[in-house]
Amino acid sequence: MFGFSAIHVIGIVAGLALLYQSYRLVAARKEGIFEFLLWAGFGVGLLVISIGSALETVDLLAALEGGLSALGFARGTDSIFFVSNLLLLFVVFYTYVQLVESRRQLSDLTQELALLRYDLEQRTDDED
Fold first, then answer.
1. What is the reported pTM?
2. Domain range spanning residue 53?
3. DSSP 6-52
4. What is the pLDDT of residues 33-51, one digit of tens each?
5. Which of 1, 79, 113, 117: disulfide with 68, CB 3.0–4.6 Å?
């Protein structure tokens, strides 16, 4: 019934770690709800694939292939590869957008700090 191997155990542990870490970061308000849903979704997906492929009575990959072929993909393995690459592209794009926003905020803060230093220097010069 169960055909657990080392890769299944690694997948289950990694999936649980993703879920726990996402929850911990949201609880500490270090992560937004969108990031939580993204990483928790990856964790749940990893758990489903790891447990589903370890069960010998359920052919999870055939079910995934059937579902993706219903969406219009030609072969199941190619469609799984395509969808996973699409998700990775989404994560890379999201990371890039966050990086650009962080750079903009850093630039704004640097300019504000320079103006505050200039204002402080002017005030100390006027007092002397």
1. 0.54
2. 1-58
3. HHHHHHHHHHHHHHHHHHHHHHTTSS-HHHHHHHHHHHHHHHHHHHH
4. 888 888 888 888 888 878 8
5. 79
